């Protein structure tokens, strides 16, 4: 099967991908979202090329701008209020900056919000840094989705590992457990 975006050797429904493992794979294999599971695609990629700029340069082919515009980053934030900490995932187009101290802080009702330390993000999600994805996050996590990401025909997101990416309809992001779609999350 040909991927709807990018220049990949092949794409397969993620639930059928033999080399796809971890929390995201488990969540996709148990998928009950409004978007059919066969529209959640997995592409095998080089883990050394997982960072967005390098990834787009290598896998963008003649449509690098299109692949970059479809790339959505999943950023783990830690919000604090009254001694309690809340971890949340924030999804923003790769060209946008996450509004941590404005939209995120207000949405989470926090006094302070910041990017979670790498070690915390990796330990709490069970995923690899550079591949963290909103699919398969721990139960109860808020998932803040920039409206622009939810409106994408196809979004390129992590697979939970540096090897491989997921290509999903943007509306699948809006339908994730705990998802709230917000205007201006990414500026």
TrEMBL record:
YbaK/aminoacyl-tRNA synthetase-associated domain location, by residue? 70-173
Q: Which GO terms describe its molecular function?
A: aminoacyl-tRNA deacylase activity; aminoacyl-tRNA ligase activity
Keywords on record: Aminoacyl-tRNA synthetase, Ligase
Instruction: Give one Pfam family, short name only.
Output: tRNA_edit
Q: Which InterPro entries match?
A: YbaK/aa-tRNA-synt-asso_dom_sf, YbaK/aa-tRNA-synth-assoc-dom
* Name of the protein in its database record: Prolyl-tRNA synthetase
- Tell me which species this is from: Streptomyces nanshensis
């Amino acid at each position: 099967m040909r991927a709807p975006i990018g220049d990949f050797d092949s794409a397969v429904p993620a639930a059928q991908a033999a080399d796809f493992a971890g929390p995201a794979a488990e969540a996709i294999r148990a998928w009950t979202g409004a978007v059919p599971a066969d529209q959640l695609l997995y592409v095998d990629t080089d883990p050394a090329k997982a960072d967005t700029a390098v990834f787009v340069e290598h896998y963008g082919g003649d449509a690098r701008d299109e692949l970059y515009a479809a790339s959505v980053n999943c950023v783990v934030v830690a919000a604090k209020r009254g001694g309690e900490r809340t971890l949340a995932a924030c999804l923003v187009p790769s060209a946008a900056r996450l509004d941590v101290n404005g939209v995120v802080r207000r949405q989470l009702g926090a006094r302070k919000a910041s990017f979670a330390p790498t070690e915390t993000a990796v330990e709490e999600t069970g995923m690899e840094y550079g591949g963290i994805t909103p699919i398969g996050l721990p139960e109860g996590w808020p998932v803040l989705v920039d409206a622009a990401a939810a409106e994408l025909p196809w979004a390129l997101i992590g697979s939970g590992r540096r090897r491989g990416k997921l290509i999903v309809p943007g509306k699948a992001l809006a339908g994730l457990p705990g998802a709230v779609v917000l205007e201006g999350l990414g500026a």
